[in-house]
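Take a minute with the sequence and fold tokens given here and flag any structure token that looks odd. Thanks in advance.
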Amino acid sequence: MSASLANGQLAATATNMVVMTGTAASGQSFVPSADSRVNVVLMNTSAVNTETVQLSVKLSSGTARNLPQIKLLPLYGAIITNLTLDALDTLIGTTTDATTVDYRVSIATGSGPLEMRISDTSGNVGSVSASVSASFTTMTGAIGASTAAAGTTTADAGALPAGTGNIYPTTAADGTKGVRISATDQVTGRMIYVGNGVSNAILKIYAPSGGTINGAAADAAYSTASGKGAWIVCLSGSGNTWLALG
């Protein structure tokens, strides 16, 4: 059974989340060992703000060590499993806006590697895993259904899936045909990758209706390099402005 150690909301200044003193916040007895592990759940409750979360571990010696920074888009969450905390270590957290990111820390019952998972507003989960014995990091993204490029304007372009992933493969690019980003991806800070499944053709990409990409005119297409896809970032959800690279 996983015992709760702490829960609450992160502050805008570095604040102790849990101190490994030996007693869980729920009242259950917990004696940390030299290799105690905890799970941390984070949830950005804001529907508009992107939160930058910084966690760190203050060792019993007093030295603080930062963990990798986490950026949570609106209504995104993160789950960190098997984070090692020794006796008297303190887990510290801070975020961009106070009382916006909920957290829960519990005792980990597994023995696997340290792992972080990000959950988006559609429930899609990607992961970033790091094993003590590994020298590399693997990122997994949610892949949406393939879309055939079509038309010559935003009105008749192929419509990408409605926010079902962050990687969207396409087919049928021929230098004139394109795809249109779904309005459900029109969230500030949202990043997607639009892949081009044709090795020798340009793919045209359109923002949601009325949107602009890289400062071009409204509803103008962004053209990828031949045979290449593009990373697309929503610069402003309310303004329907986008940035593209690829």
In short: Residues 211 and 240 are 5 Å apart (CA to CA). Residues 24-29, 128-139 have pLDDT under 50 and may be disordered. The longest strand covers residues 37-44. Residues 147-245 form a domain with the Jelly Rolls fold (CATH 2.60.120).
